[in-house]
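Q: Here's a chain of 277 amino acids. Please give me its 3D structure as tokens.
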Amino acid sequence: MKISQVFLDYLKGLSESRLMLRSPGALLPFVVYAAILALMLFALAFFLVPPMSSLMVPVVKAIGGERALHYPMHLILLPDMYYVLYLPLTALVGFVLFGSAVFHMADAFQREGATMDARSPFARAIPAMLIIGLVYVFAASAPNMTASWLGTLVENPRLTGLITLAGILASLGLQSLLIYAPMFVRTESRGARGALRRSIKYARTRFTQTAMVLLTVVLIHQPIDYLLRQPDKVVLKFRPELVIYLLIAGIVIELATTYLLFSATTGMALSRREDSF
């Protein structure tokens, strides 16, 4: 495929994000997801506030250790504690919400004339979305976690940087192959295994433009992620509470970029009538 066509497909996918707003139900699941993340963050950040303290003190201690119960160490460890809960929450709750949004997006395209199988109730798709969520989150996080672990074994900063970059690229590649799975649950009424296989097969024909959408999302996140990777420096150079504000900003960005990711890839795929799902 020509480079110009790849870039045009990428731009078309981004433009579809705006068109997806024609379906009100497409944005609401991402707002709910962001609200859940915000509640989780506030519970961790203000764990001593009644009536949450009886529940959250043991949780914070279990995740962050004894140090996490004391200020300002609590705020230094807050990003790590947040992400420990973020991954399973995204896999088990997030992907059910994302799948719901994809169903709305696909139905919006059906009203515009796209062809697909008869409408399948979303409730039947929830088990498939849970499995897809677990597979996707594992595929997205495993390369980065492996790279982070390998980085601790080497002392050369340049080599550590290369390992980190390799982890990011591997994560991007795996996500690019799996991102279409929720859409195929809707468009072809497939189960989790069939949707994942179909996603990999389809993504291989549109890999570059799909990876470009994911790379756009990663780049949008980078400024906040860079600061949150070194919360000790943030606490020492600025106010310790800035860590909370950065995490809140991250949630707002998460709302926008998750919507961008699923609306762009779903729209990019469904708008290609010749692919005949």
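Q: Can you summarize the key feature?
A: The mean pLDDT is 86.
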